Amino acid sequence: MKKVAVISLGCDKNRVDTEHMLYRISRGGHAICDVDDADVVIVNTCAFIESARQESIDVILSCAELKKTGKLEKLIVTGCLPQKYRDELIAELPEVDAFLGAFEYSRIEQIVNGAPAAETAATVQAVDRTERAEELAQFYADENVGRLLSIYPHVAYVKIAEGCNNKCTFCTIPSIRGAYRSRRIPDIVRETESLVKDGVEEIILVAQDVTRFGSDRGRLELTELLTELEKTAVKRIRLLYCYPETVTDELIQKIASSDKIVNYIDVPLQHCNDRILKLMNRRVTRADIDALTAKLREHGIAMRTTLMVGFPSETEEEFNELVEFVKSTRPQYAGVFAYSKEDGTPAARLKGHLTKAVKLKRVDALGAACAAATRAFNDGLVGKTVDVVYEDVDYDRGLFIGRADFQSPDVDGRVYFTAKDAVDVGKTYKIEISDCDDYDLYGQVKE
Question: I want to staple 340 with a disulfide (CB 3.0 to 4.6 A). Which of 16, 49, 142, 190 is the partner?
């Protein structure tokens, strides 16, 4: 038996892969532990943009230092980084004992058990072999496919599709994860039912593009999937990563009318200027975006978005348009990041790349506008009572930490509160909001 630690980097979709690995490892008789106590460390990497790759490399090198001291027997690197850069990594990181790509997690137990890396190393053709939807279905039908949840016992991300066909000009995901492949609805329902039996109350649907679920089979099937998931015993369903052009009126009505789908949606807009959107190969216009945000507000659906600054040739005027858009639209939550030049993408070949200093200045300016929008939303909640799921404790401040329906784990604000009686993790409490800041809310359990 080995003591194994897994470090999960990057997105929620990567975390799902990590949890599949944890399940296989524990089922194989190995113990899951912290890095400091591990015989084996697995780093599940992200390669989306330069900063994510650098974080992955830094973590790998940090773990490699443990091998030098003799505290660590084996270091394994998995995920998107070796999927895209396997040959370079093998040459540059001899400290790593094995590299597994984004579709090779079924081999993790062999590596942990001591099989030579050469016997389990797959080629980059792993992407091609898994592009077919039936093979994705076979993966989830495997009896060894289970989940060992790594965040909270009452929350689970459910990956409903793999890959992406959108071909945004700045994005490397299609070259790493392959074409869009939807899972089968019955398989997703079965996974949800299994998670509920294990105590999960909220599922968060994720994919590179959730709203294109079913498109590889000839039609959009997200609302059909949601209808089937509503029939399960799960209490809350949340949607992340919904591209604006496929957030249909039918989907909006589905969210607004459901007792189980929370009134929250993540829509990565990236920009609002028509010229920049076209250069990004985004399939919407400013008019489309304005119409969508108005519909979401009309139906009481909170929106989180991501916005990119510094795209090649973005002018000061176009950037200011984005700032004014945030000020007028006031999304409840927004993440801001600077354009990253990725080799092999169409955007990398565009003229007019901006300096790092200009991009960082724009990140700060747009970030301030987004923070002000969130603060305005929070101010409107002071004096009101909201339902909050208790999840953690801030011992330094002596406050419980929870999350309302309009807050997604890790990326949005939180609700800090006090209570006279004991509270249970995963349970919902009515919290009277008495104060707020730019991101978080503060209150107490209503008597």
Answer: 49
